[in-house]
C-alpha cells in the first residue's frame, strides 16, 4: 500500500491541543493540570480539539504496537502539525477502532464504528440516539457540563435529547455543530470538509479555526463546507428525507461529482466501481439502491454519455 501525506498547517487550537496531549503523555503536575482545565473551560472548541488530538496520537501508539505497519517508515519524525493536518486525519480514518481517547474516564468515553455495509442505531447515555452510516466512526465523550462527539469518518444522524445544562457538540473536519435538542445529520467530506443537514430544531455551526460568530441553521437548512468554501441551502422536507434515505438503503445524490458518489457506494460493499480521473468530476443526480452499485454505474454511464466496462468483480467508468 502506498501512502501519501501532505504537511498542512493545523489551526492554533489544534496545535495547542496537540501540545497538551504531548505534555499529558509525560505526566502533568497539579499546576499543569489546573492550566489544562482552565484551557478547556476557556473555549468550547477546546474539548473537541483535545479529543481529536488524543485519537490521532493513540492511533500512532496502537499502530506501532501492532507491528506489521511500519509507522516510523511512513513518518520518521511526525510533528504535531503534521499529525493534525491532512496526514493525521488520513491515518485516524485508516485504523477503524484504533484510537482510545484517554482524557476522559472510561465510563464517560465510548467509541463506535461500523463496517462495510453496516448501519447501526446507537443509544447514548443521555437519551440521544445516533444512527451511524456504513464505514463510519465516532468518539463520544460526555461530562457533567457538556456532551462532545468527534465524527472521525463517514456519516451519522443525531437525534439529540434536550439538556440545556449540557450542550451537545459534534466536531467534523473544520466544522463544529452545537445543539440543545434537535435532529440533524453530519457527514465528513475529505480531510476537513463536512456537510450538515437539519431535520428539525436549531443548531449553530462554526468553523473551528475561527473565533467569529457561527451560522444558525433551523428547520431543514443544509450547510456544506468543501474546498475551503461554505455553501448554505434550504431544501424542503421531502428532499431532506430523501437525503436521509441511507438509513433504509437508498442513496440520494443531488448534483454530486461522480467520484464522490462512487466513494459513498464503496462504504456499502458489493461490486467495486473504478472511476477514470477524466470523468470523476461529472455530476450525477438520482436516488439509487446502496445494494446495487453495478446498477448505479450503468445508469450513471448512460446519463453522462460515458463508458461502463464490466468485469467479474468491478466495473470501470471511463470516457
TrEMBL record:
Q: Which residues form the FecR protein domain?
A: 112-204
Keyword Membrane included in the entry's annotation = yes
What GO molecular function terms would the record report?
A: sigma factor antagonist activity
Q: What are the entry keywords?
A: Membrane, Transmembrane, Transmembrane helix
Pfam families, alphabetically?
Answer: FecR (PF04773)
> Which InterPro entries does the record associate with it?
FecR (IPR006860), Ferrdict_sens_TM (IPR012373)
Which parts of the chain are coiled coil? Answer: none
The membrane spanning regions, by residue number, are 82-104
UniProt-listed Gene3D superfamilies: 2.60.120.1440
The record's annotation in PANTHER family points to: PERIPLASMIC SIGNAL SENSOR AND SIGMA FACTOR ACTIVATOR FECR-RELATED, PROTEIN FECR
What this protein is called in its record is Iron dicitrate transport regulator FecR
